[in-house]
Specification:
Elements lengths: L8 E6 L15 H17 L3 H6 L3 E11 L8 E11 L3 E10 L5 E12 L10 H13 L1
Antiparallel strand pairs: 1-3, 2-5, 3-4, 4-5
């Protein structure tokens, strides 16, 4: 694809009762929801809100998601969702994730999502130049 980026962004969330299964564990599909929370937060802080991106005619379509479950999370635990852009190219971007219990170093799960920029009709388009420049600036600061 493109270049690698270092440096994690952290989002925080507390496991809600409605998100656990009968065993009291965070239900597996909710990890993807947490990835989305972190990604939306990262995009808003680093670039602009999803609403503004869509108003400009872009869509960020999910192409692939992978999750590796290592340890369970439980109701009322405070979690840190770590995200960073791991790789990008002309029209695609990959984000890496870790979910950790607050204050712990070992992840509960790791994952990746791959996305493609499209126009309103769903056709692949180049990543917006403004975003590419922002990513390149971070690489230079290293």
């Amino acid at each position: 694809m493109g270049r690698k980026l270092t440096g994690w962004h952290n989002a925080r969330i507390r496991v809600r009762y409605s998100e656990v299964d009968r065993m009291g564990l965070l239900y597996h599909v909710n990890h993807l929801e947490y990835f989305e929370v972190a990604r939306s937060d990262w995009i808003r802080k680093f670039w602009r809100s999803y609403r503004q991106i869509e108003d400009d005619g872009y869509r960020l379509v999910a192409l692939e998601a992978t999750i590796r479950y290592l340890k369970p999370a439980r109701y009322d635990e405070e979690l840190t969702i770590r995200i960073k852009p791991a790789d990008w190219g002309r029209s695609r971007i990959t984000f890496a994730y870790e979910i950790r219990r607050r204050g712990e170093r070992q992840p509960l799960c790791t994952g990746e999502t791959k996305h493609c920029f499209t126009d309103r009709r769903g056709r692949a388009v180049r990543m917006p130049e403004e975003l590419r420049k922002r990513l390149d600036e971070i690489i230079k600061k290293g």
